[in-house]
Design a protein that fits this description.
The complex is a heterodimer of chains A (114) and B (116). With 114 residues, chain A is an all-beta fold. Helices cover 0% and strands 55% of the residues of chain A. In chain A, the strands form 2 sheets. In chain A, strands 2, 4, 5, 6, 9, 10 and 11 form a 7-stranded mixed sheet that branches. In chain A, strands 1-3-8-7 form a 4-stranded antiparallel sheet, with no helix packed on it. Chain A is globular and about 35 Å long. Chain B is mainly beta and 116 residues long. Helix content of chain B is 0%, strand content 48%. In chain B, the strands form 3 sheets. In chain B, strands 2, 5, 6, 10, 11 and 12 form a 6-stranded mixed sheet that branches. The chains are: A mainly beta (114), B mainly beta (116).
């Protein structure tokens, strides 16, 4: 059983399109995240959700809209895709009770905008 | 300001030798956690080791150990007896308290290449 699963694994789309990435975790964690890894491999937080509530929105353009229907799911919808959105997007989850809890990451979604 | 600094973009190590990956961090929070993750060429993020700011002893997990020097704000990863499968990118990360509890801040990563 995959702990954090995200779909699709690969996404190739044209500029201007709208696309969604789905994420589900079966670890019983109460916090979920979206991270973006750019072409230089730098990982940057985009959003954090705790028990379906948005906690962190790290200056991400409004074209990106996360949705958490329940604490096991966190989806990412991207409108009007741009070339600069090409990256690997990672979903992750964790407990919030103390810093001793690390993150479990999904396998990533490689988004290519052409 | 950068919270996590990894100054070694790339390193080569001979198989069976040990390698140390540097990581320094910046925080004023007395309670924080430090993590190392491995990202092989397949792309997944693999948790390796954790060190809490109040832990008295350095963390160890198999061939991985964390050299934690709190006063110097460094948390170097030591991989002993390197194997070809250790070739990957390695990220140091920190989780702090308060609102920062809801995110991991990552360093830029170090690419390790193990030579046979």
């Amino acid at each position: 059983d995959t702990a954090v699963s995200q779909t699709p694994k690969y996404l190739v789309t044209q500029m201007g399109n709208d696309k969604s990435i789905k994420c589900e975790q079966n670890l019983g964690h109460d916090t979920m995240y979206w991270y973006k890894q750019d072409s230089k491999k730098f990982l940057k937080i985009m959003f954090s959700y705790n028990n379906k509530e948005l906690i962190i929105n790290e200056t991400v353009p409004n074209r990106f809209s996360p949705k958490s229907p329940d604490k096991a799911h966190l989806n990412l919808h991207i409108n009007s895709l741009e070339l600069g959105d090409s990256a690997v997007y990672f979903c992750a989850s964790s407990h919030t009770a103390g810093q001793g809890y690390g993150y479990t990451f999904g396998s990533g979604t490689r988004l290519t905008v052409v | 300001a950068q919270k996590i600094t990894q100054t070694q973009p790339g390193m080569f190590v001979q198989e069976k030798e040990a390698v140390t990956l540097d990581c320094t961090y910046d925080t004023s929070d007395p309670s924080y956690g430090l993590f190392w993750y491995k990202q092989p060429s397949s792309g997944e993020m693999i948790f390796l080791i954790y060190q809490g700011s109040y832990d008295q002893q350095n963390a160890t997990e198999g061939r991985y150990s964390l050299n934690f020097q709190k006063a110097r704000k460094s948390a170097n990863l030591v991989i002993s007896a390197s194997q070809l499968g250790d070739s990957a990118m390695y990220f140091c990360a920190m989780r702090e308290g308060g609102l920062n509890d809801y995110k991991l801040s990552f360093g830029a990563g170090t690419t390790v290449t193990v030579r046979a």
